[in-house]
Amino acid sequence: MGKTLAEKIWADHTVRSVAGEPDLLYIDLHLLHEVTSPQAFDGLRLAGRTVRRTDLTIATEDHNTPTLNIDRPIADPVSKLQVDTLRANCKEFGVRLHSLGDLDQGVVHVVGPQLGVTQPGMTIVCGDSHTSTHGAFGALAFGIGTSEVEHVLATQTLPLIRPKTMAINVEGKLKPGVTSKDIILAIIAKIGTGGGQGYVLEYRGEAIRNLSMEGRMTVCNMSIEAGARAGLIAPDETTFNYVKNKAHAPKGAEWDAAMAYWKTLFSDADAKFDREITINADDLAPFVTWGTNPGQGLPLNSNVPNPADISDPEERGAAERALTYMGLTAGTPLKAIKVDTIFLGSCTNGRIEDLRAAAEVLKGKKVSGTVRMLVVPGSARVRLEAEAEGLDKVFLDAGAEWRNAGCSMCLGMNPDQLAPGERSASTSNRNFEGRQGKGGRTHLVSPLVAAATAIRGTLSSPADL
Amino acid sequence: MEKFITHTGTAVPLQRSNVDTDQIIPAVYLKRVTKSGFEDGLFGAWRNDPEFVLNKPEFAGATVLVAGVDFGTGSSREHAVWALQNYGFKVVLSSRFADIFRGNSQKAGLLTVVLPQEEIEKIWAAVESDPKTAITVSLEDKTVSYGSTTIPFVIDDYTRWRLMEGLDDIGLTMKNIDEVSVFEASRASFKPKTLPVLS
Ligand code: SF4
Asked: How far apart are CA B129 and CA A187, in angstroms?
C-alpha cells in the first residue's frame, strides 16, 4: 500500500524505531524565539550540554519586540529581559540570531521561508504552535514545548508518537474576493477546534493547488486552530519556484538532487488516510469569526448566530459566553458590527502578498475616521519590499499606521494591544478572550476584509465598497 | 538528571488537599528566564505566613514533601516541578497526584510516590511528633520506610528504570546518540544549513 506525504517524511527522518517506545525523529531545522527558549538554554547549561547542530538552528526576536522606536532600548523590562536573554544565549551557544534592526528579523514563521531554510521534505520544529506554517512547503512542521526545545537543542531529535493523517480536499475554484484565509476559517468552522487533534492534515485539491505560497502558508498556519499540530501541502512548481533563488536554497547540482527528491513528495494514489473530508471552494465566501475561538466563524453575509439554535449543550454554552464577551446580540448582521481597530499582520497574513492585497483595496481611499489601522509587516525584509513597491505610501495616505516587524497585536506582548472592550478586525489567527489585550474583542478576517472594514468602519468585504 | 536509587531525609507535612500548580508556583513568578531560582516562589501565597509549615524551623532542610490528596492539579506549568526541586525536595508523597504534574515530575526527576491516604496520615503524625524522623524512599525496593514501618509502593517499570538510571528524555536519547550520528552521516547534502551564506 502507498504512503501519505506525512508518512514518507516521517519514515525519511526516523532515526530509531523500537516497539513500545516512541520513534526518534531527526529534526532538520530548529527555529527559536525569545519566549520559549530561555529555560531550554538554562537546562543545557545546568547539564553541561551544548547545542548539537548550531548549523541547523536559527533564532529571531518577534513576540516582545516593539514596532515603534526600534532603535531605542525596549521599554518594558520583562520584554527586554527575554530579548536580552535570547541574545546572550545565542552568543554563548553559537546560534545565529536575527536581532531587531536586522533585515531578517521578524515573526519566526515569516523569516524561515524568506531565507529559504524552509524547504520541502524537511522536519521543522519551533517552540511555537504556529510552526505548522512551514507545512506549506511540504515539510512536516510542528510546535513543541520548552522541554522539547531543550531536547532538540541537545540531540537534534525528538521522541514522538506517529500521528494519524487526515486529507482535506478543497475542490473547485475560489470566487473572486475569496482567499486562503476564508478557506481555513471555513475548514475550522466545519471540523471544529478539536477536529484535527492527533492528525497531520494534508490540504489537497484544485483550490489548494491554485494558491500561491503565501496563501498556502496562511492555510497551514491555522492547522493548529483546528487542533492539529501540523498541516502540509505537497510541493509542486509553485513551491519550487518560490524556494529557487532564496539565499539558502540549494544551488547547481545540489538543486538538481533536491528537485529529484522533492518530486517524490506526494501522497501515493493508493495511500490511505485515517480520515478524509471534502470542501467545495465554489461554495466559499469571505469568512469572519463572531466568537472567541477560531471555529466560531461564518460567512460575512450571515447574522450573529442565536445560541438557542445550537443543539449541542456544550457548544451552546460556549456560544452564549462568547456573545457576552464579544458584546454581540444574536441576529445582528455581521456587516453591522462596528470595529475600532484593524490589525493587518502576523504569521498568518503578514507577508508581502497580504500587504499587496490590502493596499490594492485601500489605494486612493481613506480609513474611516472612527478606526485606527495598524499595518505590521511580518519581517523587516517584507517591510522593505513593501516600501520598494510604494505600499507604505498607500497605507499612510489612507491614514493607517506603518509599523516595524514583529508579532505585535497578534498577542499583545509588546505595547500594541487592544483596550478593554475595544473591537478589532484582525488578520491574525486567534480570537481568544484577551488575546490582543485584556478585554479586547477580536474578529478574525482576511487582509481583503480587513482593508474593506477599515474603510467602512463595519465588517465588510471589498464587494461592499 | 541525577540517578535516584534510594533517598533518606526528613519530611514536611503539608496537610492540605488539592494544592494546585498556581499555589505551588504563582503566575507572577513565571516571567523568569531560567529553570532555576524558583524556590523563592514556591507556595508563594503562603510563605508570608510564619505559621505555614515550610516556615517552621523544625522542618528546615527537609527533602521529602508529604502532601494531601490531589497534589499538583491545575495548569501544566513545568515551573511547579522546578520550584519544588529548586527548594530542595527530592520526593513528594501523596495519595493522589494530578496527571500532568506527575508526568512533568517524572520527566524532571522529582520522585512522586503514591501511598494510601491512611499511610500518609500516619507519616504526618510521626513527623509532627518528631520532625527529625528520617524517611527512606527506596526506588530499588519500591518501599517507603521510617522507624519500624515499611510501606511498599507501585511504580511502572519503565519510569522506575529511567529514574534509577538517572535518564531524562535527553539522557535517554543520548544513550542512542550513535544512531543519531549514523543517521546524520547519510543525510542529503542539499539539506539547508542556517549558517550565514554569502550572496
Ligand atoms: S504572529 Fe502571532 S501566532 Fe504568529 S508567532 Fe507571533 S504571536 Fe504567534
From this structure: 63
Q: How far apart are CA A54 and CA A58, in angstroms?
A: 8
Q: Are A61 and A38 in contact (CB under 8 A)?
A: no
Buried b (16+ CB within 10 A) or exposed e, A318-329: bbeebbebbebe
Residue A166: which residues within 8 A CB-CB, separation 6 or more? A196, A199, A200, A201, A202, A228, A273, A274, A275, A276, A277
pLDDT band at B198 (very low <50, low <70, confident <90, very high): low
Give the position of cell 519566549: A35
The three cell numbers locating residue A120 = 520541502
Asked whether this complex has an ipTM greater than 0.85, the answer is yes
Whether A20 shows a pLDDT value over 90: the answer reads no
CA distance linking residue A245 with residue B162, whole number of Å: 47
Cβ-Cβ contacts under 8 Å, B194 against chain A: 29, 54-58, 96, 117, 248
Report the pocket of ligand 1 as residue ranges, CB < 6 Å: A 62-63, 107, 109, 128, 130, 346-347, 407, 410-411, 428-429
Q: Which residue of chain B comes nearest to A257, CA vs CA?
A: B190
Kindly report the nearest CA distance between residue A12 and chain B, in angstroms.
Answer: 10
Q: How far apart are CA A271 and CA A413, in angstroms?
A: 43
Confidence of residue B199 (pLDDT cuts 50, 70, 90): very low
Name the band, by pLDDT with cuts 50, 70 and 90, for residue B31. Answer: low
Whether A137 and A246 have beta carbons less than 8 Å apart is answered as no
Tell me the mean pLDDT in the region B29-51: 84
Amino acid present at A147? S
CA distance, residue A78 to nearest chain B CA (Å): 7
Return the pLDDT at B108: 84
What contacts B49, CB < 8 A, 6 or more positions away?
Answer: B55
Q: Are A236 and A146 in contact (CB under 8 A)?
A: no
CA distances from A354 to A48, A211, A395 (A): 44, 13, 13
| Extended strands (E) in A285-351 | 287-289, 297-299, 341-344
To which residue does cell 488539592 refer?
B18
> Å from B121 to nearest chain A CA?
35
Mean pLDDT, residues A297-306: 98
| Measured distance CA(B85)–CA(B36) in Å, rounded | 9
Per the DSSP assignment, residues forming a β-bridge with A338 are A458
How far, in Å, is the centroid of ligand 1 from the Cα of A333? 30
Instruction: Quote the ligand 1 centre to B124 CA distance (angstroms).
Output: 48
| Alpha helices (H) along A222-375 | 237-244, 252-262, 313-326, 346-349, 352-362
Segment A91-121, tens digit of pLDDT:
999 999 999 999 999 999 999 999 999 999 9
Pairing between β-strand A23-26 and β-strand A14-16 as defined by DSSP bridges: antiparallel
What is Dmax (Cα atoms) for chain B?
Answer: 75
Q: What is the pTM of this model?
A: 0.85
